[in-house]
Amino acid sequence: MSTLLYLHGFNSSPQSMKAREMQEYLLQKRPDINFICPQLATTPAAAWAQISEICEALAVRNDGHFGVAGSSLGGFLATRVAEVYGVRAVVINPAVNPQVLLQDYLGEQLNPYTDERYLLTAQHMQELSELRVNEPNCMARLWLLQQQGDEVLDYREALEYYRFARVCIQKGGDHSFIGFNHYCAQIIRFLQL
């Protein structure tokens, strides 16, 4: 059985709209695909440890074919999964430099999905810097889904970073990626699941 690993974004959860839409699509159209969408730890190093553990387990299974999709900070992490594990990835309005973007969010945080409170610190920005794929070799296995109307991230940053990947850029939209459900089947095809 193939597996789709879906990675949610900053202060999000498996209950995010895109995660739920993808899970619903798989339940209805592709029940042969295992869907994993963990509640990621609030700190980057801990989240990466979780993701690595899942990927290691998937890689050693006899039928361990898997792909990854991620949105925003999840797209940043999905890029690292593609680089480290040699799998295909779809990144949706991804954060390219979260260690810079999240500087404005240092301090107390509240995840609106889980009600978890935590402190975002400069150490976490360092962890993000260490997780960034600075010279990616995985671009042939990546698909960027980007909307220009993203109010959180500058879409041009993603276009530059992912310029050697497959790219789908849309005018308008927003950070949630309006119309994501229309891409579920194409994402599964691209990931070869």
UniProtKB/TrEMBL annotation:
It holds the Pfam family UPF0227. This is Esterase YqiA. InterPro entries: AB_hydrolase_fold, UPF0227/Esterase_YqiA. It comes from the Bacteria. Gene3D superfamilies: alpha/beta hydrolase (3.40.50.1820).
